[in-house]
Amino acid sequence: MNKILLKTLFILLSFALAACTSKVEEEKVLLAQVGTDKIYLETFEEEFSFVRSRYGASYPIDKEAALKLKAAYLRQMIDEKVILLEGKRLGITVGAEEVDAAVSEIRKNYSDAKSFETMLTKEYINFDKWKDKIKKKLLIDKVIVRSISSKIDISPEEINAYYTSYQTDFHREEQVKARQILLRDETDAVKVRERIREGEDFATVAKEVSQSPDSQEGGDLGFFSRGIMPPEFDEVVFTIKVGMLSEVVESPYGYHIFLVEEKREALDLSVEDVHARIVEILKRLKTDELYMKWMEGIKKKTPVKINEDILKQSMGIK
Q: Given a cut of 60, is residue 179 above it in pLDDT?
């Protein structure tokens, strides 16, 4: 086969593929166009079905409320596309390694592969589609940070003013860090307490015998203030010294043994102590404030057309 014939076949094949693509697009119903991007009715309905499934029994029965929710989701899809196009204009990208890192972080929230798969099943989505959603979210976040967050400055005066206005939020109550072992039988609890008193490691024994949800963490309850745990807990852990083993304590849940590992006195945190937290709060507030203005600006650069007839048809409106 000579080069001219090969070239001719390649050109014909290119036209055939383009025609097929065009035919497929023609068969799809266009709901909205955002710049050069298109939102097809099929895609919108598929994505909205995920939203509806998340609501479950709490999905609005009232037709008007349901229609408002559907219209709001279309606006969200349009806004996302506007932001993604702005990211394209700015040359912002998300690399495969960034997506993989984000996926790994999310996977850490699940105890095993099965629970992760269960989450995907609940979302009615396969792994590749879910990964695409993660990539899109990372890109949107990058665009917002570049366009808004990175340009926000927080002055010392603003930090001090916020601290003065919300000073009661920066008071820390007395706290303890404790571990527990929970057993249903009092006799068993007494025997287990004796094992620890004779030198066995509390966390190890908790993993072995405790019937509380925190058993696999060695009974670790973390730090907590008064009133967070049942009163039977507070009466013991806030009175015994650090390193001390409690007596067997009865509660509606069973019989407990506590070990207090650390105590923190009540204190009022200074502005220096909470500086980073206040900066984050103020940045978030300013970002929210500037976001709407920024969106208005980038929407002016991106023409949006909604097929109102198709939208009404989708919503069952005549």
A: yes
